[in-house]
Amino acid sequence: MHFVFVQPPIGKRVVSVSPALSIPYLAAIVEAKQIKVSVIISDAEGLNVDQTAERVVKLNPDVVGFSIGTVAAFNSYDIARLIKEQVAGVITIAGGHHATIFPEEVLCNGIDFVAIGEGEKTIGEFSDYLLGERIIEEVRGIAYCIEDGIKYNEAQSPIDNLDNLPMPAWHLMPIEKFSSNFQKTSKNLPIMTSRGCPGQCIFCFKGLFGSKFRMRSAKSIVSEILYLKEKFGINSFDIIDDHFAANPKRAIEVCSLIKKNSIHLAWGLPSGIRVDVVSEELLKALKEAGCYRIGFGVESGNDQILRIIKKYTTKDQIFKAVRLAQKLNFETYCFFIIGNLGETEQTIDDTIKFALELDPDIAQFTVAIPYPGTEMFQVLQQQSRICSYDWNDYDYFKSGRQVFEHEHLKYDVIQKKYSEAYKRFYLRPKFIIKKFKTLKNFEEISRLLKSFLNFVGLFKS
Asked: Beta-carbon neighbour count of residue 453 at 10 Å?
């Protein structure tokens, strides 16, 4: 039996090519069942929809699994249909946040089974079904079509002890083709140390991992870092948790064990940490363990907007956290959203002004998008303000079409302010001079050039 996992092309410009971390975990579980596994990461290999389908068909698989995010949904369906047309009897299954939210939609588009929610336990039980060791009704957490509609099996329980997860199957991944203009080194892999986020932000979907904060042990985390270093030769890594420091004591424990094991790898927290848990003790522990980069989810430079989006942080907390990180010589990344619910031109100007005041090393501005499953989407849908259900429009960097009707702002104003934010931040002489002073070698110059070209491309599409 041959099981092929596919991460479909996103269909937008990308500056970072890396897998959904779910795939190497799921692949490891299926492979442990003595099933042959292959993995295709379309963007990493430069494959479009037709090329991805062609690659899968050549493998002649028995089962194809898709990791489906909203922006890649239609591409996923097209690939599934093409495969079904050419591979007799192939079984398709999909998971991910879009599949979890819209199982009926997914099942109507060339997919036989949908895994709902956290997928590792479900894929293990589904593998038993494929091997004839379990009947389909006993596979928890899946949905599938039956004669008179859609059958939803019993819900899958969350993984209580994340230490029980296997090592991700990176040996199946095209890791030499992963890239990012923002990583410190070229040999970098992501690590998950926790799942779940107690935050209430209206723009986040928590249907996969929930609100309960579940942690891996420090010993398990360090074992994985050492494994990745020895097995794959990584010289840096990123911890990509939604909220790595939700429990600061545990975060400090992880840092202490990294230092104790003399790992000596640069690492970052690109997904960001909440400013309301930042302390000098935490940041010093991160620094001593090799962390060089921290992301902060700022979102807005206006306290009222921060309350509306249920971020529940303040400008004062943000300013103090970023300044403390800068004082300790961290690279700082700040994330901002343009066009939040409740925004006016003035509040967006507040955000741009605040970004300039914070002056992080990298500022990422995105257009507010009400992703399905979020509170933001639900509110707008109830108010009949969703304009587009074309998932290709749900590109938060620069949507091709208006996705929702804003209560105060025209869509072209939001786009204008989005462009203005990038130009005002990155075209400052102060920023350009500072950035060039940090360059140490040709690799860093090359990354900066690629970043600049991507920046220019934002305003040509």
From this structure: 11
Specify whether 106 is located in the same domain as 197: no
- Using the 8-state DSSP alphabet, how is residue 275 labeled? G
Determine the Cα–Cα distance for residues 17 and 213; give it in Å rounded to an integer.
Answer: 27
**Burial bucket for residue 124 (CB in 10 Å: 0-12, 13-18, 19+):** middle
> Tokens for 53?
């389908």
Count other C-beta atoms under 10 Å from residue 202's C-beta.
18
Same structural domain for residues 145 and 227? no
Count of other CB atoms within 10 angstroms of residue 89: 6
Does some domain include residue 188?
A: yes
Alpha carbon separation from 199 to 56, 282, 322 (Å, rounded): 39, 19, 19
C-alpha to C-alpha distance for 419 and 365, rounded to whole angstroms = 9
Residue 64 corresponds to which tokens in the numbers above? 């194809």
Q: What is the pLDDT of residue 186?
A: 67
Tokens of 285: 């522990």
Same domain, 98 and 194: no
Query: At residue 45, does pLDDT exceed 50?
Result: yes
Residue 347: inside a domain: yes
What range defines the domain where residue 13 resides?
2-152
CATH code, domain with 331: 3.20.20.70
Which of 152, 171, 196 finishes a domain?
A: 152
For residue 10, the domain's CATH number is: 3.40.50.2300
Report the distance separating Cα 166 and Cα 26, nearest Å.
9
Tokens encoding 58: 């050549």
Is residue 154 within 8 A of residue 139, CB to CB? The reply is: no
Q: Report whether 367 contacts 414 (CB < 8 A).
A: yes
Distance separating alpha carbons of residues 63 and 35, to the nearest angstrom: 10
Amino acid, single-letter form, for residue 255: C
Look at residue 442 and tell me whether its pLDDT is greater than 80: no
**314 assigned to some structural domain:** yes
Residues 307 and 206 in one domain: yes
Q: Which residues contact 166 (CB under 8 A, 6 or more apart)?
A: 25, 28, 29, 32
pLDDT of residue 452: 54
Residue pair 206/196 in contact by the 8 Å Cβ criterion: yes
Q: What is the pLDDT of residues 142-187, one digit of tens each?
A: 999 999 899 999 999 999 999 999 999 999 998 888 876 556 556 8
